[in-house]
Amino acid sequence: MKNRRNTPKRGNKKNEKEKNPKSKEYLFDKPGNVKILFRSFYSALLVLLAIEFFVNKHPHFAWEEWPEFYAVYGFVACVVLVLVSKYILRPLVKRREDYYD
Amino acid sequence: MINPVPPAAIFIIAALFVPLFKGRWKNAFMLLIPVVGLINLISIPEGTHWVVRFLDYDLVFGRMDRLSIIFGYIFHIISFIAILYALHVKDDIQHVAGLVYAGSALGVVFSGELFSFFVFWEMLTISSIFLIWARRTRAAMGAGFRYLLVHAAGGLCLLAGIVLYVNQTGSIEFGYIGLSGLGSYLIFFGFGVNCAWPFLHPWLTDAYPEATVTGTIFLSAFTTKCAVYALARAFPGTEALIWIGAAMAGFPIFYAVIENDLRRVLAYSLINQVGFMVCGIGIGTHLAINGAVAHAFNDILFKALLFMSMGAVLYRTGKINGTALGGLYKTMPLTCLFCIVGAASISAFPLFSGFVSKSMVMSAAGEGHMRVVWFILLFASAGVFHHAGIKIPFFAFFSHDSGMRPKEAPLHMLLAMGIAAFLCIFIGSFPGPLYSLLPYPVDYAPYTIPHIVGQTQLLFFSALAFTLLMLAGIYPGEQRCVNIDADWFYRKGSRLFYLIMDKGLNSLNKVSDHIFVGGLAGFLGYISKRGPEILTLGALTPLWGITGAKGKELKDKIETTRTALHTHTSPIGISAALATVFLVVIFILR
Predict the structure, then answer these.
(1) How far apart, in Å, are the Cα atoms of B98 and each of B15, B27, B86, B218?
(2) pLDDT tens, position by position, B185-202
(3) Is residue B5 in some structural domain?
């Protein structure tokens, strides 16, 4: 995610960097830039949570009208996805790299 | 004005001439093929063309209707992009295989009957296998052979189904088939193998990441989409497809989260996306079929874009495992940017192509009040963003700094990625032209405020989950390992098969050897050698006894006769006596 939202900005800065090849420091080498990225990401989340109350919905299902349904579902789904993959699937299917050799 | 020719013919015939050209001429010639093909395609009116009488059947090489033509367009577009991406390759085998493969895919979608359809379907397998073997590594050879075996089995299944079906209906026309009777089930299953249904899928995740850098772009576009086309043609509205599609959309994302090879992550997400299409075909309403076809169109573009960006990384660094990469945005910014466009498209961000097609399938599920399916698809939407949308760009281009500072991808690769990225954004921002090509009239508006807000919330909070899990150190670290999948059954199962064959057949062999070679042959040899002697002496010894021969005399007679028989110098009398005995024996046996 953090990659995406600032893409155009990063693209521009990258070009500046390329004009000065001696500079070894890149965009995310600066802790300040990472901080800006995180802050803008978190504020975007807040905006998205707030904007929901101004939207007139016309859903297929009743639960789509519940407040913040998509936000909660997206968050929970991904946490479940990662936990299941890591703690259930991986122990079941993980083998050494030369397993089939 | 030249008369149009069957779209497949241009690619397949032109492919044979590729080795004759050198250098820039070769590049120009190859790029010209899809351009000429597209002009040819546009000039063909809707309807049935190129009907050839063969035996008692009419073969149709040009059934042009709205369902086939849209697949024709996207196959031409992606061929151009894939050829452009592969211009640096000096290996003619790959170029020829890629072009024949694209031509076969066009043959499949424009075939109007099952006979030529099947021939092109098998050509897909045969031509694509060279794109895997051309990598010339041990892993690629093995994966290629497994790919061939699975597709050969699927192809035979399809052939058996076609034979039964044609026998049952008396017609070879390829239209709606539906599930009724053994033949149709076998055809259904044959399509399923190419479509990578759950448990039939491992050929895809096994072989695609082992193929060449450029071959994977061709592979990701044709085989599965031809299967999607075939299902949309023959089995729309088949309820089983809804559940098969939902399973396809759901299970691969778990594997994708723990997979280390980034091209294999994309292979899993390819199955996930095809799941949306299969589900749409199963729902079968006009909206759902439109959604499935539109998503196939978009998926070919953004999946190729993602595979191209990872291919460029592999080409420049020689590495593709998440553990080995990181920090590449520093020196490959454009590849990184294109990768992010592909990631945003597959994740269905507003203004990117996935948004305008995936939501059609979701809405169709919603309109049909299919609660469980809708929840699975929504889960898959969040999940695909997680593994393809974030994991791919993050581990390759950001994450920890691998210390590698490779050069930016070559110009022709950047151009190929640029065209695909442009189309992803263009279709996402202006879906009208795509919608106008769909099989049914479109009455669907993707850009409504609730849809935009809901989808953006889903994605951003999915990203929040990723961020927090990463920061907390819970996100599963990339590990060098193999994750076993359904291919275990034939990769390890083949050893069991081998063991059974070894123990079973070899012990049978041993027993046969013991009985026939060791026992019976010796016995027969003994009989043929000593038989006359035993018979003769058995008949003569009592006779001599009666005539009064005794002791040494009898012994001498026996010894003389034995020697005579051994050296084949027996007196005529004895030979005559033997012959008489032989005739008597024959007479009795008769």
Answers:
(1) 8, 14, 10, 7
(2) 999 999 999 999 999 999
(3) yes
Helices (H), chain A: 2-5, 7-19, 31-51, 69-84, 90-93
**SS3 track for B16-58:** HHHHHCCHHHHHHHHHHHHHHHHHHHHCCCCEEEEEEEECCEE
Identify which of A7, A14, A77 has the shortest CB distance to residue B462: A77
Are residues B203 and B260 located together in one domain of the fold? no
Q: Which helix (H) or strand (E) holds B584?
A: helix B572-589
- Give the ipTM: 0.78
Count how many domains chain B has: 3
* Chain B closest-CA separation from residue A80 CA (Å): 10
Residue B551 falls in which region: left (phi positive, over 0), alpha (psi -120 to 50) or beta: left
Q: pLDDT by residue (tens digit) across B423-440?
A: 999 999 999 999 999 999
Give me the residue label for tokens 């448990």: B199
Q: What's A65's DSSP letter?
A: G
The residues in A 44-63 lying below 8 A from B, measured between CB atoms, are: 44-45, 48-49, 51-52, 55-61
Q: Is the dihedral of CA B258, B259, B262, B265 positive or negative?
A: negative
Q: Please report where in the chains the tokens 């599930």 appear, as a residue.
A: B179
Under DSSP, is residue B398 helix (H, G, I), strand (E, B) or coil? coil
Judge if A49 and A1 occupy the same domain.
yes
Q: Clarify whether residues B144 and B100 are in a common domain.
A: yes
A residues 25-44 lying closer than 8 A (beta carbon) to B: 26-28, 41, 44
The token duo for B69 is 């033509």
Range of the domain at B424: 240-481
State the nearest Cα–Cα gap between B421 and chain A, in angstroms: 14
**Contacts of residue B367 in chain A, CB cutoff 8 Å?**
60
User: Which residues of chain B are within 8 Å of residue A100 when distances are taken between CB atoms?
Assistant: 482, 491-492
Contact A45 B464 (CB under 8 A): yes
Beta partners for B261? B321
Residue B214: both structure tokens together: 């450029």
Percent helix, strand and coil across chain B, each rounded to 5?
A: 75, 5, 20
- What does the pLDDT look like over A43-87, one tens digit per residue? 999 998 888 888 877 788 888 888 889 999 999 999 999 999 988
* Best residue of B458, B478, B490 to probe chain A, by most A CBs closer than 10 Å: B458
Q: Report yes or no: A24 at the B interface, CB cutoff 8 Å.
A: no
Q: Please give the tally of structural domains in chain A.
A: 2
d(CA B233, CA B284): 11
- Facing residue for A57 by CB, picked from B254, B379, B450: B450
Chain B contact for A95, CB < 8 A?
yes
Taking CA atoms, B152 is separated from B113, B135, B271, B322, B493, in Å, by 21, 21, 20, 33, 18
Q: How far apart are CA B9 and CA B100, in angstroms?
A: 9
